[in-house]
Design goal:
The chain is mainly β. Helices cover 0% and strands 27% of the residues. It has one domain. The protein binds zinc ion (2 copies).
């Protein structure tokens, strides 16, 4: 589990807070990808994980699916309607993780 105190934020330089568990590609929607997932390339825009930066915390939230215990990212302007792992689409079965 990520220690949120080690996200690299430096208040003197006001660097952007990022989550090293995720990276972002060039797509305008669904651009947050897990660094721990099996895919290391975005199949829509062709971005390679190793070439792209960590995702900014301000851009997305983590969602926990209670049905299958999967955790996935949801960009603020791009709601994910169903769990990408088990396709659960019941909002009662998903919770936003605190960070
Ligand atoms: Zn992409
Ligand atoms: Zn699920």
């Amino acid at each position: 589990m990520l220690n949120r105190d080690e996200t690299g934020y430096d208040s003197t330089t006001e660097q952007t807070l990022v989550d090293p568990n995720y990276w972002m590609c060039e797509c305008t929607t669904q651009f947050i990808h897990s660094r721990h997932g099996y895919e290391d390339v975005c199949e829509r825009c062709g971005a390679l994980e190793e070439d792209y930066p960590d995702a900014r915390l301000a851009d997305f939230q983590e969602v926990h699916c209670r049905a299958c215990e999967h955790v996935y990212a949801e960009a603020h302007d791009d709601p994910v309607k169903r769990c990408p792992n088990c396709h659960n689409d019941d909002p009662e079965q998903t919770v936003y993780l605190q960070r």
